[in-house]
């Protein structure tokens, strides 16, 4: 999926980030010299250094592009330590990079920062099949870990569309959420230990495999979601849940958003502990997917309902789960909460149903330059937010010429709405205008401008206005300055200058 | 052809095709404590029967689709799926242990059931094979026992009055057969794309009749004629290697792989 995305996306390259953000000035960092490359050659093998940096300078959505001249591929914690110690000493800026599937531009350079890519640092170090705790190198791909766990009867606690490419250290550094947060919680709970290399090269070994360990400040929590600005995550010990043997998926059509909320409340009630995902999307999302992706006919015969929801259950006993699901579906039909729906009868049908939700972002990117937003909000306001956005730009006469395909979808269970749209061409001003509307709406309604996608470079300018930013930026800066006094770790991202 | 046209569809509950099958510790069977679903070729059979029913409805002709499954109590789940896809009624031939139920026994049960039924079937549509045993025998054996024509590996089915026209997938391409009803059809992959079970139909399915009978009721002995001695995993695939020269390649093919 990622490879396809990249081929589609790089037909016309987005302008350089520094041209889009002319107010950004390159920091007082050293410019890369031959002596620096020579040093790295003493630390790394010849196949661990490249000056062919095109693929590492651009993000998945073709929105952010830098001009790094060097990409390094460490294979061990010691190598990462040597790299960072040297860069800190020489005042060379560094961008940590994993699978490069982030959507906020946090994993690509802005200027000529050196890219330190974890892709070759990818061994699964250990797995305890009694506790379900896996210890892995930071470059392990999420799906790779999941495939390792499957025959042992365990599963990774998070699932996202980019699982075939995203790496664990990246997931941790962005506190990735995904489709199963509802069931397994987020990484702050599932990460039991981290091995981090600090900006000065110090190796911080907090790789614990203990479920409970109240012995002082829980420093690893700082690095979870720090987007690579406080250090590089090189090792993770992760609690993995038992793989469910019974999975069921139903897709339902509803006549209004109120019914979506009703279906959700009813799901919590009837399905209880087996509820593992509750995703929703609007009809426009379906139209976009149908237009760009090779899909079979839409499974629900009512294909023009305003809203659809996918409900998934996971458990250890199929007959128990099916009984609960039957009662749930019966009540949905009897109380007219849904217009129609289907229940997957086998694994193939389950995957097909999920495709209708998982292909939405890919479909929008296939339509052209894409705008993507990820807000946390009271779920009662989801429809209102999408409608207001559409109305606002309609009234300005911008729908159809500047913007198209405004769609809303997301994780009802987590209070996380995704709004996506297309722009005609790479118009940075058009992006800023849309950003402003969406972010200000979220802030005005007590929401967050970033539920799970992170700040990266996309939302740095809004940090001072987000609730957390307003109150906590001074302390965040203190911590940043303590750990990274020379400011070499992923500069220009997350924290405003 | 009686009015209505009666189509019997035998369906089998098998390990879901997406499950990574593993051999049990005793090496006597695979681990069956995994997700099960209707045999994919049987889904195609049910779908075809329901499509015939829908097509004939437009011509104001009635069709009855009867789903039958031979197995333990869990076979009823599979029958409910068939009912939710559009079958009219279901018959469960309850067998104590279906791990040893083999195609000949199933064919005999179906023949005995047909003999006993007052309202005789006009067509049997079966999946070409079950994905657990890959036997590809039940349809053919049933045709032999009933002395009916068989049209196997169907990729297209048309019914015109008393005539059945079936296109089959064979090694050389496609072959079209014409025969009279009653007949046996076994389905191949490209015959159709099975529909999803819709919620309204799942609810309706609960009210459709499901009758339970036993092999004793039909006077059939279902004990297996073939015994499975051992079940093993295939040898692990060894990694490939690069060679430096043609001579080295020939040497390895001769002395290591022993294929020259």
Automatic annotation (TrEMBL), chain A:
Q: Which cofactor does it need?
A: FAD
Alphabetical UniProt keywords: FAD, Flavoprotein, Oxidoreductase
Q: Name one GO cellular component term.
A: mitochondrion
Is Flavoprotein given among the entry's keywords?
A: yes
**Source species, domain of life:** Eukaryota
Q: What Gene Ontology molecular-function terms does this entry list? A: D-lactate dehydrogenase (cytochrome) activity; FAD binding
Q: Which SUPFAM superfamilies match?
A: FAD-binding/transporter-associated domain-like (SSF56176), FAD-linked oxidases, C-terminal domain (SSF55103)
Keyword Oxidoreductase appears in the UniProt entry:
yes
Query: What InterPro entries does the record tag this protein with?
Result: FAD-bd_oxidored_4_C, FAD-bd_PCMH, FAD-bd_PCMH-like_sf, FAD-bd_PCMH_sub1, FAD-bd_PCMH_sub2, FAD-linked_Oxase-like_C, FAD-oxidored/transferase_4, Oxid_FAD_bind_N
Which reaction(s) are listed as its catalytic activity? (R)-lactate + 2 Fe(III)-[cytochrome c] = 2 Fe(II)-[cytochrome c] + pyruvate + 2 H(+)
FAD-binding PCMH-type domain mapped to chain residues? 64-243
- State the family named in the UniProt similarity comment for this chain: Belongs to the FAD-binding oxidoreductase/transferase type 4 family.
PANTHER family with a match to the protein in the record: D-2-HYDROXYGLUTARATE DEHYDROGENASE, MITOCHONDRIAL (PTHR43716:SF1)
The protein's name in its UniProt record: FAD-binding domain-containing protein
Q: What is the originating organism of this protein?
A: Hesseltinella vesiculosa
TrEMBL record, chain B:
Names of the cofactor(s): AMP; FAD
Record InterPro entries: ET-Flavoprotein_bsu_CS, ETF_a/b_N, ETF_b, ETF_beta_N, Rossmann-like_a/b/a_fold
User: What Gene Ontology biological process does one annotation of this record name?
Assistant: fatty acid beta-oxidation using acyl-CoA dehydrogenase
Q: Name one GO molecular function term.
A: electron transfer activity
- Matches recorded under Pfam families: ETF
Keywords, ordered alphabetically: Electron transport, Mitochondrion, Transport
The entry's localization annotation reads: Mitochondrion matrix
What is its biological role?
The electron transfer flavoprotein serves as a specific electron acceptor for several dehydrogenases, including five acyl-CoA dehydrogenases, glutaryl-CoA and sarcosine dehydrogenase. It transfers the electrons to the main mitochondrial respiratory chain via ETF-ubiquinone oxidoreductase (ETF dehydrogenase).
Give the record's family classification.
Answer: Belongs to the ETF beta-subunit/FixA family.
User: Can you name this protein?
Assistant: Probable electron transfer flavoprotein subunit beta
């Amino acid at each position: 999926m990622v490879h396809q995305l990249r081929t589609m996306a790089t037909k016309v390259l987005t302008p350089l980030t520094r041209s889009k953000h002319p107010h950004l000035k390159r920091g007082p960092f050293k410019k890369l010299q031959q002596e620096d490359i020579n040093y790295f050659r003493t630390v790394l093998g010849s196949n661990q250094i490249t000056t062919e940096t095109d693929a590492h300078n651009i993000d998945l959505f073709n929105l952010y592009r830098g001009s790094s001249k060097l990409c390094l591929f460490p294979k061990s914690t010691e190598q990462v330590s040597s790299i960072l110690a040297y860069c800190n000493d020489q005042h060379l800026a560094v961008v940590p990079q994993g699978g490069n599937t982030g959507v906020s531009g946090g994993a690509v350079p802005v200027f000529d920062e050196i890219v330190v890519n974890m892709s070759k640092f990818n061994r699964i170090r250990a797995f305890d099949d009694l506790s379900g705790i896996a210890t892995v190198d930071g470059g392990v791909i999420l799906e790779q870990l999941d495939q390792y766990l499957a025959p042992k009867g365990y599963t990774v606690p998070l699932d996202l569309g980019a699982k075939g490419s995203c790496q664990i250290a990246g997931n941790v550094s962005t506190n990735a959420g995904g489709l199963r947060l509802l069931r397994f919680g987020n990484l702050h709970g599932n990460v039991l230990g981290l091995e981090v290399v600090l900006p000065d090269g110090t190796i911080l070994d907090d790789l614990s495999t203990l479920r409970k360990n109240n012995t002082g400040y829980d420093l690893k929590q700082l690095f979870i979601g720090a987007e690579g600005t406080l250090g590089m995550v090189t090792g993770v010990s992760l609690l993995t849940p038992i793989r469910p043997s019974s999975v069921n998926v139903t897709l339902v059509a509803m006549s209004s958003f109120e019914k979506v909320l009703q279906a959700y409340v009813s799901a919590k009630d009837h399905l209880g502990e087996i509820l593992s995902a509750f995703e929703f999307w609007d009809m426009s999302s379906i139209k976009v997917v149908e237009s760009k992706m090779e899909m079979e006919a839409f499974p629900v015969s009512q294909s023009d309902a305003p809203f659809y929801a996918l409900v998934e259950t996971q458990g250890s006993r199929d007959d128990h789960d099916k009984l609960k699901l039957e009662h749930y579906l019966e009540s949905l039909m009897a109380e007219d909460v849904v217009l129609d729906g289907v229940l997957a009868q086998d694994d193939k049908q389950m995957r097909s149903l999920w495709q209708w939700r998982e292909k939405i972002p890919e479909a929008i990117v296939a339509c052209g330059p894409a705008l993507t937003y990820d807000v946390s909000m009271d779920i009662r306001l989801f429809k209102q937010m999408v409608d207001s956005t559409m109305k606002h730009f309609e009234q300005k006469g911008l729908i159809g010429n500047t913007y198209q395909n405004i769609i809303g979808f997301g994780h009802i269970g987590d209070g996380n709405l995704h709004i996506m749209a297309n722009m005609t061409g790479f118009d940075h001003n058009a992006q800023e205008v849309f950003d402003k509307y969406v972010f200000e709406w979220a802030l005005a309604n007590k929401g967050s401008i970033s539920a799970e996608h992170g700040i990266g470079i996309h939302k740095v300018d809004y940090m001072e206005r987000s609730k957390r930013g307003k109150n906590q930026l001074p302390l965040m800066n203190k911590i940043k300055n303590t750990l990274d006094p020379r400011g070499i770790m992923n500069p220009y991202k997350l924290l405003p200058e | 052809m009686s009015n209505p046209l009666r189509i019997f569809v035998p369906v089998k509950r098998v390990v879901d095709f997406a499950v990574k099958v593993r051999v049990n510790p005793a090496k006597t069977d695979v681990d069956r404590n995994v997700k099960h679903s209707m045999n994919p070729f049987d889904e195609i059979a049910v779908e075809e029967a329901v499509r015939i029913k829908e097509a004939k409805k437009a011509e104001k002709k009635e069709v009855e689709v009867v789903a039958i499954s031979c197995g333990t109590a869990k076979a009823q789940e599979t029958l409910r799926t068939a009912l939710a896809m559009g079958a009219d009624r279901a018959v469960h031939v309850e067998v104590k242990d279906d791990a040893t139920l083999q195609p000949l026994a199933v064919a005999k049960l179906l023949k005995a059931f047909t003999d006993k039924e007052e309202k005789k079937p006009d067509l049997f549509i079966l999946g070409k094979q079950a994905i657990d045993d890959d036997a590809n025998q039940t349809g053919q054996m049933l045709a032999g026992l009933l002395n009916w024509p068989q049209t196997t590996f169907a990729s297209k089915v048309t019914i015109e009055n008393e005539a059945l026209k079936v296109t089959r997938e064979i090694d050389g391409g496609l072959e079209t057969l014409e025969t009279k009803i009653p007949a046996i059809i076994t389905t191949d992959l490209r015959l159709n794309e099975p529909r999803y079970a819709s919620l309204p139909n799942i609810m309706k399915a609960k009210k459709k009749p499901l009758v339970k009978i036993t092999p004793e009721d039909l006077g059939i002995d279902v004990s297996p004629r073939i015994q499975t001695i051992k079940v093993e995993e295939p040898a692990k695939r060894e990694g490939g290697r690069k060679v430096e020269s043609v001579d080295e390649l020939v040497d390895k093919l001769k002395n290591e792989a022993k294929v020259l």
